[in-house]
Amino acid sequence: MKIAQIQSRVYNDKKKNAEQLKLYLEKIKSERPDLVMLGEMFNCPYETKQFPLYAEEEGGETWKMLSHLAKEYGIYLAAGSVPEIAEGKIYNTAYVFDRNGKQIAKHRKAHLFDIQVEGGQHFKESEILTAGDKCTVFSTEFGKIGLCICFDFRFPELARMMVLRGAKMILVPAAFNMTTGPAHWDVMFRGRAVDNQCFVAGTSSARDTGASYVAWGHTLLVSPWGDVIEEMEGEEGYIIHDVDLKEADSIRRQLPLLSARRTDIYQSENGAEF
Ligand SMILES: O=C(O)CCC(=O)C(=O)O
Question: Coiled coil located at which positions (predicted)?
Fold first, then answer.
């Protein structure tokens, strides 16, 4: 499976973000990607007050454009995330379209990003956003793929659940920042890949030092062995790689971690499983 990860800039103008996406798809089409992945909030500045202004319903203008592009280019399009409005609530939502433009997955960010790092990054998504409540895995001809959004990936339980549901790769549209990026981005992606023996793809927007939230960038792809296949820095651009999801099975056979789990002892004192 050839996966392309686009680390694009986020403009204030939704149309400009759409135009930019089309230019990238045109640019990479000769490399024949199977799956193209975008970053978190790829068409909306990452600021809580902007989310309601950019939000659209499922099936809205942006959704239609994404579905159309997936079909036009014959690709799976894991379209980063966008602000979604449904019944008056706003979600941080990731859609995936198949090669015919049909929506095959939808993940609403389940863990909202509320942090206050002393002397560093502050953010409170829960001021505006409602959390989703699902673990998301979808099927392709290459194998099953899990999907979550940025802060979701900090919770190993969710990644493990996707893997228990068959995921051989996990896609994470994300936007770490200049505080938590250098501290945790690489170790988190490599750690999840090693624990779950699966590919992980983290795709960020490009770094814009003029933005109110400065993204770390560092779009990366990690193998089931924990090797960083490629990692960008903050620049605009893309990476593209051929991966064989069967490699996850091979690593799981050679180093049988998932089958050696002792779920009988993974309980807290009151008996609750985690
Ligand atoms: O977990 C982090 O450090 C960053 C998370 C984030 O930026 C997000 O969830 O959007």
Answer: none
pLDDT in tens, 148-172: 999 999 999 999 999 999 999 999 9
The answer to whether the CB of 154 is under 6 A from ligand 1 is yes
Beta strand 136-140 with 220-222: parallel, antiparallel or unpaired? unpaired
Give the global pTM. 0.96
Choice from 149, 150, 203, 205 to test ligand 1 binding pocket (greatest atom count within 8 A of CB)? 150
Banded model confidence at residue 117, pLDDT cuts 50, 70, 90? confident
Architecture in CATH for domain 2-246: 4-Layer Sandwich (3.60)
What ligand 1 atom has the least distance to the C-alpha of 121?
3
Tokens linked to 87: 């019944």
Where residue 88 falls (left for φ over 0; alpha for ψ -120 to 50; beta otherwise) is: left
Catalytic annotation, pick one of 44, 135, 150, 198: 150
How remote is the C-alpha of 181 from its chain's centroid?
A: 15
Told to judge if 40 belongs to the known catalytic residues of this protein, a careful annotator would answer yes
Residue 233 and residue 220 in contact, taking contact as beta carbons nearer than 8 Å: no
CA quadruple 232, 235, 240, 243: dihedral, nearest 10: 20
